[in-house]
Amino acid sequence: MTGPSLEAPLTINWAINNSCNFACRHCYSRVDTHDELDRETLFTALEKVARAGVFSVNFGGGEPLLRRDLLEVARFASGTGLRLSMNSNGWFIDGETAAALREAGFTRVGISIDSHLPEVHDRFRGVAGSHGRAVAALGHLAAAGIATSVSTVICRINHTAIDELVAFARVHGAGQLNFHNFKCSGLGLAHKDELDLSPAEWQEFYRGALAAREREKGLDISLDDPIIALLGARDTGSLVKGSVCGKLSLNIKANGDITPCGFIPVVIGSIVRDDLRQVWRDSPVLEKMRNKKATGKCSGCSKYEECLGGCSARALALTGDLNSPDPHCWA
Q1: Which residues of 301-320 are buried (b: 16+ CB within 10 A; e: fewer)?
Q2: pTM recorded for the entire structure
């Protein structure tokens, strides 16, 4: 078995709750009905993560701010030396909350905004007024001294609005714009035919997004999709080829289950019961993801060594095999 080059993941994406006040069309976690860890168990798990050598934790959910002890959890986590960030829909972030998040140790908060047009975003997220609250949250966070990013799930509602989304992020002071590829997990799979793009449309989108990234100064445009390697590019923040999942990062669910990423519902351990470094080192699922083999149309492709078959989560969701070619690939 080929082991990882790191002794532990650099970052953990941690869904600390499942509850949410939104009804997003693409949500991967709406189908998760597991219990959430109580605070003391969560503290013990965070200590375990810090001792394993993890650098940062990104809290998600659900909507993390619906967890009433979030600030206490954050203070404890930052006290262990972990660097903290969070993804939020922005609904609950006013000036007072933003200041409290800063005091609790959060250095960056990503706000989910899927369109520059309020009515499009609100319809997609299922809550009237959500766009206005998200925009206000960006301002409150910046005023509190927290770095902000705009997280946008690219799909049918926004894939032709690259320039508008870039301008929107700049106007509202975000330091980063994350273009997340549509994953086909959870409700995303149920609404795939309505929301997903064709491979040719993905190619056109990424050409435009890469051009925008090239010309933008002062705004970090992040593209977290391995298939941009087909256009001779890669995510500027990535230290590895192909997907970062299982190589640089892991996901922990609200009940403590460990999965390779939030979009791959394959449990490889428990942060409550298992040793994180041992899971990271010995998991057969992670070994397979780190040592993918070209199959199908990937065999003989000149870009395979760069993209390594694309997104494993999409391949699993649509073919049942982590190792299959990414269904979004246009090659």
Answers
A1: bebbebbbbbbbbbbbbbee
A2: 0.92
Report helix, strand or coil for 110.
strand
Query: How many residues are recorded in the chain?
Result: 331
CA angle 31, 287, 192 (to 5 degrees): 30
Cβ(314)–Cβ(327) under 8 Å?
Answer: yes
Give the torsion sign (CA, 179, 107, 248, 125).
Answer: negative
User: Reduced to 3 states, what is the DSSP secondary structure of residue 103?
Assistant: helix
pLDDT in tens, 157-167: 999 999 999 99
State how far the alpha carbon of 15 is from the alpha carbons of 28, 47, 63, in Å. 11, 16, 9
* Of 199, 263, 261, the residue nearest 230 (C-alpha): 199
Domains and CATH numbers, the chain: 11-293 (3.20.20.70)
184 φ, ψ to 5°? 65, 30
Distance CA 78, CA 134 (A): 25
CB-based contacts of 4: which residues, under 8 Å, 6+ apart? 247, 280, 281, 286, 290
* DSSP characters over 266-298: ---EETTTS-HHHHHHH-HHHHHHHT----GGG
For residue 245, the 8-state DSSP code is B
**For the segment 51-95, what is each residue's pLDDT rounded down to a tens digit?**
999 999 999 988 999 999 999 999 999 999 999 999 999 999 999
Q: Which of 60, 87, 82, 42 is nearest to 256 (CA)?
A: 42
Are 325 and 226 contacting, i.e. CB atoms less than 8 angstroms apart? no
In order, the DSSP letters of 255-272 are TSEEESBTTB----EETT
